[in-house]
Amino acid sequence: MNFQPLISRLKSIKFPVNRQSIEIPSYSWFEFGLFIIITAILILSTSSYISTFNSENNLSFCLTSKCITLFSQIFSGPLEILENGSKVIGAYVGVCGVYIALKTYLISVRSSALSGHVSHLNLFRSHIESEIAKRSSLSTSRIDVFLWYRLMFPNSPSGDTKTSRTYKELIIQVHNEIGNTNKTLNDASHGEAYCYKDHQSRLIIALENLGIKMERMPKNNFFEVETQVLDLIDSVNMTFSMDASGGIAQTPSRSYL
Q1: Which of 6, 102, 163, 228 could be cross-linked to 241 through a Cys-Cys bond (beta carbons 3.0 to 4.6 Å apart)?
Q2: Cα–Cα distance between 6 and 8 in angstroms, integer?
Q3: Buried b vs exposed e over 13-22: b needs ≥16 C-beta within 10 Å?
């Protein structure tokens, strides 16, 4: 039985992903194993046939029913080796077929997950770019979209687009910095004057962890950019982080404005 066409087809299977392709690895081990089994069967059956032929006398060529029956009786050993060998080959091909089918399925699943990841990333980037275009104080050069995405969806390449705990903690850190400034401004018991420069320093660090760069500015200019950045973050979170836990809380009110 010729398995070469089947092997050639399995080798050539490709799955398109974003104009690229994932190719099934070579199954040379399958060919080698099949060769070893067939060679062993042929050697055993031939050796048995020669030994049996040499031990028998007065054998001549004959095609009568009696001769054929006698042949099957005399050479039952080699014939049995061939019969059992064909069963071994069938079992081997069956097991390898299941394995190859499973590998093909897993590659298909990875390909599908990667396609979903690329589509999700492009959607994420397009959303941010469109939101930035609505806000005059923001620029794409100051926002690392890919870092933001990796923080938010670290398992996206495997098909998991659940918002990560690390990202949620970074958002909480931003909210905490806003809360600290509110508290410093409103809680007179601290006896401290509100310092907008200190607020800028803390918020710049918190936002940089998300891939968003801000610079020190005059008070009102900074607040204008800050408002647009926080609006952008809320828009992204509302669009992409709605999971079973209910998503991420929006930016708290800022009494220091």
Answers
A1: 163
A2: 5
A3: eebebeeeee
For the CA atoms of 154, 160, 163, 167, what is the dihedral angle to 10 degrees?
A: -10
Nearest 5°: the CA angle 21, 27, 33 is 175
DSSP letter, residue 157:
G
Is the model's pLDDT at 23 over the cut of 70? no
pLDDT digits (tens, 9 = 90+) for 161-210: 899 999 999 999 999 999 998 888 776 555 455 678 899 999 999 999 99
In the chain, what are the domain boundaries? 4-116, 136-240
Whether residue 147 contacts residue 167, with contact meaning beta carbons closer than 8 Å, is answered with: no
Amino acid at 8: S
**What's the rounded Cα separation, in Å, for the pair 27 and 3?**
12
Give the position of tokens 């687009």: 161
* CA nearest to 34, candidates 75, 65, 3: 3
